[in-house]
Design a protein that fits this description.
By secondary structure, the chain is of the alpha/beta class. Helices cover 35% and strands 16% of the residues. It has 18 helices and 14 strands. Strand 13 and strand 14 form a beta hairpin. Helix 4 crosses helix 12.
Length: 408
């Protein structure tokens, strides 16, 4: 069975994966990205650079040749609503959001080499894990599809505003979650590691992003941007270090650009309520508007239609919030459930909840917990709810990769 697991390639993990929706890197603006995110309903969009005159080269480490599958088309990154929100929060851009949105897309595209890497479908499972552990967030893999000449001509004549085809091929990407989920299906091969506690395995990290409940949310913008890059979250704690909730990229990605105004005017605690299970509550909307007016940012109010979200008519607040039963910290209960939910990846939980475990939780229990709630991490707390660290998919993959090396 071990040999069977090690024989898998990334193509095996791509079965059923949706094709990427994309944005062109050239001539696109931040506003274009915002419009595409709104219309697509996707949590994030891939960004592509297409240069058909470029010569082929190799990324190494299991990465595919430059022109393979795309003849010069390369995915160079990804953008999400959090990138737009953090961008608007900085350098006084809220004084004229419409002008700020005219900036080129590169203004919000992370300039970190290796976050997105192209790989060949024949790339082995071990190579894929190594690339993730080297810092890749997404592995871009071509999907093997068959298109007729007529279909290709039609695609060429009528390009989509968010094309998924690059030179006749579709692509998907693999994430840490995909790989951990795949390994979980063969977790018995890793015995006895899955039954050991995360404390015994030494994978509880104290390197966490934290903000005080009463501090201005604007002071956490840097931490929010870093949490997006690290695929974690910003923990919100009280004066005693007790975990109250979190400002996660998932929560902000389900908002819109007006959340930038909330970050600029509210405390971290009030921001939790603003994004919690749908909001924003009417009373906080009034607070945001009043504080924007006090700061002379009437243009922001005029350009941003800041208003309470409408609840989902097909699912009441009580029904949706009661549908989730996570092990979590829930000390605030404000707001209504948002109607802006992301297809299959939606988590029917309060979005500012923090998914938690304790140091004696087993590795497999924490893996299942993270996958069930579609997060890349689980907070580690003591019995009094004081925050002591975090466990991420990255830490889990490090442990499992070492065991796979022994199997090989």
């Amino acid at each position: 069975m071990a040999a069977g697991l090690l024989s898998h390639t990334v193509s095996d993990l791509c079965l059923g994966k949706p094709a990427l929706r994309s944005l062109p890197a050239a001539a696109a603006t931040v506003g274009d990205a915002l419009s595409a995110l709104r219309s697509s309903g996707e949590a994030c969009l891939s960004v592509w650079s297409c240069d058909h005159s470029s010569s082929s080269s190799s990324d190494g480490g299991g990465a595919a040749p430059e022109g393979e599958g795309g003849f010069g088309c390369r995915c160079v990154g990804k953008v999400c609503m959090v990138d737009v929100i953090c961008y608007l929060c900085k350098d006084g851009r809220l004084s004229s959001p419409s002008s700020a949105l005219k900036a080129p897309l590169t203004a919000i595209l992370p300039n970190v080499p290796g976050l997105v890497i192209h790989v060949d479908p024949s790339c082995s499972l071990l190579e894929a894990i190594d690339l993730i552990l080297q810092g890749a967030q997404n592995l871009v893999v071509p999907i093997v599809t068959r298109f007729t000449t007529k279909t290709r001509r039609k695609q060429h004549q009528k390009p989509s505003p968010t094309p998924t085809l690059h030179d006749g091929r579709e692509f998907c990407w693999l994430t840490q979650e995909d790989i951990v989920r795949f390994l979980l299906n063969s977790i018995g091969l890793f015995s006895p590691i899955p039954a050991l506690s995360i404390d015994d395995l030494g994978i509880v990290s104290a390197d966490i992003l934290v903000a005080d409940y009463d501090s201005p949310a604007s002071s956490a913008v840097g931490a929010i941007a870093r949490s997006l890059a690290e695929q974690t979250s910003v923990a919100i704690v009280d004066g005693d270090g007790v975990l109250i909730g979190e400002i996660s990229s998932f929560a902000l990605a389900a908002c819109d650009e007006t959340a930038a105004a909330a970050i600029a005017t509210l405390s971290c605690g009030d921001l939790l309520a603003y994004i919690d299970c749908g909001g924003p509550p009417e009373e906080l909307v009034r607070v945001v508007k009043a504080r924007l007016q006090e700061r002379g940012l009437q243009a922001t109010i005029n350009e941003f239609a800041i208003s309470p979200s409408n609840s989902n008519p097909s699912l009441s607040s009580d029904e949706e919030c009661a549908a989730a039963t996570p092990t979590s910290v829930l000390l605030r209960k404000l707001g209504r459930c948002n109607s802006r939910l992301f297809s299959y990846s939606s988590r029917l939980v309060r979005r500012s909840e923090a998914i938690v475990c304790n140091p004696k939780s087993s590795l497999v229990a924490v893996m299942i917990q993270a996958i069930a709630h579609r997060v890349n991490y689980v907070w580690v707390i003591e019995e009094d709810c004081s925050l002591i660290g975090i466990v991420t998919f990255y830490h889990m993959l490090e442990v499992l990769r070492e065991h796979l090396e022994n199997l090989a």
